[in-house]
Write a structure and sequence with these properties.
240 residues; membrane; NIDO_dom; 5% helix; Alpha-tectorin; mainly beta; 1 helix
């Protein structure tokens, strides 16, 4: 049985299938990486949440259909990660930003939301990469503080991409499983990256056509964390 350790890194990126720990962004990194703001951080807290039902799915559905008209999209799964007031390692200032992975029946999207971001002289990168190098995108802003006002969908501070049908589908067609899905509680990650563990009865799926988190009615799958930051609203983090 294969094992799979996707990671949420304190340095502002998520990686899949390959371990990355570097604080220095690498646009030529050989891996599947989502990097809303890859730079060196002393991240105080990282929040994450999986959503499979409820009003957040309705909100994601409405937002995707607004940004991508005519698709008649209906969201069935979200995975939200928020780096909240992360402090730069080698300069003063903080940054708050978020990724939202959105999947429906046969269509998937990546949303990157940017809140307050102060200037920094550190090396940085914003975009996504794939292992093959065939699918990638770098946001071409001159400085990270510009991300809060930039957009490709007409909403300042938001970038959104359709990702199905590409290697990037691996970001969303993550796993089919029949037993257990385990996440650590996202507490202080100043010294350690948050690692998502998927350890039992795991099959890696590279296709979005049958995107699945088949749950067998397990209540622990509906709410995986106690610290939650709502999507699309970076300024309203709360304790459950």
């Amino acid at each position: 049985m294969p094992s799979f350790l996707p990671q949420i890194n304190q340095n502002g990126f998520q990686s899949f299938f390959t371990h990355f720990s570097g604080a220095i962004p690498d646009p030529n990194a050989n891996g599947d990486i989502i990097a809303p703001l890859w730079t060196s951080f002393n991240s105080d807290l990282i929040y994450y949440q999986q959503v499979t039902n409820g009003s957040l799915l309705d909100r994601a559905t409405a937002d995707i259909n607004s940004m991508f008209p005519g698709m008649h999209f209906s969201a069935s799964w979200l995975f939200i990660t928020t780096w909240f007031t992360a402090s730069y390692s080698t300069s003063t200032g903080i940054a708050t930003f978020q990724t939202v992975l959105v999947s429906g029946d046969e269509i998937s999207f990546l949303i990157m939301n940017y809140g307050g971001i102060t200037p920094t002289g550190q090396p940085w990168l914003s975009g996504y990469l794939s292992t093959s190098g065939m699918y990638h995108y770098m946001i071409g802003e001159p400085r990270p503080s510009s991300l809060s006002g930039s957009t490709n969908v007409g909403i300042p501070g938001r970038w959104a991409f359709r990702t199905d049908g590409a290697i990037l589908g691996k970001f969303f067609g993550l796993v089919c499983f029949s037993s257990l899905f385990v996440l650590p509680t996202p507490i202080d990650v100043l010294l350690i990256n948050v690692i998502i563990f998927i350890l039992l009865n795991l099959m890696i799926s590279l296709s979005l056509k049958h995107f699945c988190l088949h749950q067998n009615d397990r209540s622990e799958l509906s709410l995986l964390v106690q610290l939650v930051c709502l999507p699309f609203s970076l300024s309203h983090c709360r304790n459950m």
